[in-house]
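Below is one protein, fold included:
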Amino acid sequence: MMSAKSSDREAEVRAFDETKLGVKGIVDAGVTTIPSIFINPISKRLPPPKPNSTGCDGQFNFPVIDLRASENGLDHWKKVVEEIREASETWGFFQVINHGIPDTVLDEILKGVKGFFELDNEVKKGYYSRDFANDKFAYHCNADLYSAVAVNWRDSFLCYMAPNPPTPDEIPPVCREILIEYSKQVMKLGKMLFEILSEALGLQQCHLLDMGCLDGLSILGHYYPACPQPELTIGTPKHADGSYITILLQDQLGGLQVLHQNHWVDVPPGALVVNIGNALQIASNDKFKSVEHRVPAKYAGPRISIASFFSTFYLETTQKYGPIKELLSDENPPKYREITMKEYSIYNMKKGLDETSNLDYFRI
């Protein structure tokens, strides 16, 4: 039987969901205290932030890799492969510069995403949906809104750009052209990264591409409004991505934090961020690491970020994947059972962002 407290909370969450205005709607109403559904249990709260300060450990230098070096002959290519191998094994994250995506495209996609969330409310409501499996463009607040312990301080849209992209008319005009262009650019970069990552695993350059790692692309646009009580809530809680890799663009507010050697490290803005996801940790049999990361709520805002996930979560396929057989041996037996991407997706959506690893469920 549901307790009165649980029933009240579910009613509050449903009432919030039915406004279709998200966190931005709360901020626009001029609140100075956040609603109770956003308040995290004390055990999950971050240390109180200070204005203009992250409070994170600054002793580590986040890996930054110059991809232009890969154009300068075999020796430079090998250097890039080695740098990405080391970062993928030790950090699970790295930034890339000289990646081929023009600055104008990066600027315009940030403007386009921001522009969508700042549309007239009645226009924006028309895109609100929680049917993530069928709607190719879905604006929402928290995919795990009804299962999470607390609602996170962010609004999002999810758009599937490969292999079956929406028609142009299904994408809001304010970000239509730039979302299509940005997706093309990200696909080119993704292809290069998968070639490098294949070699970093000691495989043929085409191996991860032949596995289908580039077949699915979904783009998640995030809008983190300024928060009047950031010490009580969070933008995105600690989690690891389910993708093969994720390419992230964050605006100049920064905010992304990565867990490294038991320290939370700030990822500086200004360069694209690449991280290994759970699917590639499984495929590499734990050689590459899918690392936890988070985004605190902030006094300042809005913060804009765009995450591009390479995965095939929502494709109807019976194809199974697991540790790559060429990487296995008597000394390195498989650590995960074979699963379908759909199986992973169903488990992930049911579990939500609860700060525990999805990988344990699939370990042998």
